[in-house]
Amino acid sequence: MRKDYRLEKRKYVIAGFLLFIALIYLVRLFDLQINDSKYKAYADNNAFLNKTVYPSRGLIYDRNGELIVFNQPAYDVMMIPRDVQQFDTLDFCNTLNLTREQFDTRLQDMKKSPGYSTYTPQVLITHLSAQDYGRLQEKLYRYPGFFIQKRILRQYNHKTAANVLGNIREVSQNDIDNDPYYQRGDYCGDLGIEKSYDTYLRGQKGVEVLIRDAHGRIQGRYQDGTLDVAPVSGRNLKLSIDLGLQQYAESLMVNKIGAVVAIQPKTGEILAMVSSPTYDPTLLVGRQRGKEYRNLVNNPYKPLFDRALMAAYPPGSTFKPGQGLILLQEGIINTGTAYPCSHGFISGGLRVGCHGHGSPLPLKPALQTSCNAFFCWGFKAMVDKRSKYGTPAEAFEVWKHHLVSMGYGYKLGVDMPSESRGFLPNAPFYDRVYGEGRWSANTIISVSIGQGEICATPLQIANVCATIANRGWFITPHVVKEIQDTVMAPEYIDKHYPTIDERWYHEVAEGMRMAVTGGTCRLTNLPDIAVAGKTGTAQNPHGRDHSAFMGFAPYEDPEIAVCVYVENAGFGATFGVPIGSLVIEKYLKGEIAPERKYLEQRMLESNTIIYSGVKKH
């Protein structure tokens, strides 16, 4: 009988097919049992409950050790959907002062949330009151699948410095995606130092491993807690903020829109940083946080907008000391160079107005009287000097480079979120506007006196003032003085030197001193404290001019540099100077002299917000 080779081949084909199927099963089993941890997690969830233990968030103190922000316990109702058994829903709702409709809505919202799983703990209700927590704790055994999760909420000893402190909020899906530390229901910093120092403040979570019985009921800690991980508390922060000075500056800015920034020149530490109008930080705590946050967002005065860091204002005449430094450094002027002022700068058909004073005059009297014409002529002499720079564009870039080195036009790097860079135009900007080679100093003369396209934040202006106070250097401004068990970053210790020689700072500082003893800043002339200052009146095309001031004291050994900016408040001497002088006096002396109480009272009671153009007053 002949052998059938076709049957022989078929046998191998069938055997190969069976081996292929077996291989698929083996690969899949390997993937399920070794590579894929999902089913292991399901099995572990049947036997164990890993309960997160949240750490205490770091405390926040002011520079003098005064406690500002601390923690209070809060409780969330958590549920593991697959473990929930039939229970008395009405009794549950009554215990927590909920309606059945509210309970059903929360349940539906929970199921729609990203990351929802029937096997893992889900947040049902946040921020239980102490009374609700007590009632639920007594009855919790009636509701299988539910448990209480202890969390930490912030509490405030003082209703001040909201823009500096920030707050905490529940994490978004974006937060979870960007940081593996976070899980649904966690809290993170939002605004202020709560945000910028969140990784220091939040600490490290702990875990309690709980064992279940065959019915899913918690029987206690697994292996008597040997596998538990204790939480690590967040690190405490000591701010550079002087709480008393912060509160005082905020009181002076009530019913005003603007900012106050005070810096310790030698260290770059921010002593006070006020954004007005401000708000009560306690509003953003607890179950009503969402509602109160919406109210603040919709407030026409924008209290969440930190004007000290984010508002880009025309610096006005506070810009002139920087201008003087550039003109001296570039050799355009010397201390004896005088320019005329015929009630302003007049060149061809162009006129920039100025108030009455002596003429001609050199740099120091020009700073003393805040002469517009002097700085217009100086700017024109530099930008149009083709023999030195070639073209106005090249001269302008040199001018801009000096300003950038002083801290204008770019973020300073303060340890707070959302800092604005202000605005400093460059030559290509004007080439686009006017055409390449078709503009000169006269075309853009307004920038010479801090108007036109120039914009700066109050923080930048205060930093320039601190640089002049130090006679030629600054340390990046910062609001955190110390981090528990941590060395401060070098950027908040190292000195920065602008492109101006030290000798010229002495000349400009002397001119600012003259402005106090016999010029536009006479209200800051304190009897026993030598103050140097510069007013600023920034033109505003949308209403009343803005009032600005920068100054430092004591003159020989400065301890404080201040910038005040009040929107729609008129001349710099009307509001900027009084508020600045009061802040300086309060910090250096601790109190306001009796003969100056009238000035303090006037600032406390005055209202410039009515001129803001916002319809709701």
Give the structure's gist in a few sentences.
This protein is an alpha+beta fold and 617 residues long. It is 36% helix and 18% strand.
User: Might you state the CATH topology name of the largest domain?
Assistant: Beta-lactamase
Structural class: alpha+beta
Strand content: 15-25%
| Individual helix count | 22
Helix content: 25-40%
CATH class call of the largest domain? Alpha Beta
What is the topological layout?
Layout: H1 5-35, H2 38-47, E1 48-53, E2 60-61, E3 67-79, H3 89-95, H4 100-112, E4 122-128, H5 130-139, E5 146-156, H6 162-165, E6 167-170, H7 173-178, E7 187-190, H8 192-196, H9 198-201, E8 206-212, E9 218-221, E10 237-239, H10 243-252, E11 258-264, E12 269-276, H11 289-298, H12 307-310, H13 320-329, E13 344-347, E14 350-353, H14 363-369, H15 372-383, H16 386-389, H17 392-406, H18 427-434, H19 458-469, E15 474-475, E16 480-483, E17 495-496, H20 502-518, E18 532-538, E19 546-553, E20 560-566, H21 576-589, H22 597-605
Parallel strand pairs: 2-10
Antiparallel strand pairs: 1-8, 2-3, 3-4, 3-5, 6-7, 8-9, 10-16, 11-12, 11-20, 13-14, 15-17, 18-19, 19-20
Helix pairs in contact: 10-21, 13-15, 13-20, 14-20
